Amino acid sequence: MATTNQYIQLDKVTCPTVQTNAAAYYLNRKPQTLRSWACLENGPIRPLRIKNRLAWSVAEIKALTGVI
What we know:
Layout: E1 17-18, H1 20-27, H2 31-40, E2 48-50, E3 53-57, H3 58-65
Helix pairs in contact: 1-2
């Protein structure tokens, strides 16, 4: 899992999506939990699939965590 210093504050993220490890950090979950959400399509948010990668919407993460 990533350390606290590896990611910037969520309210300062400007790109539209983040990778699974960053999304897991912001949602306080393990990356494997988010991968499970993607496979089972049963999580509170769903990723964009770009080839073999998952991209998680920053706007959805902010909405889910209450960050404006």
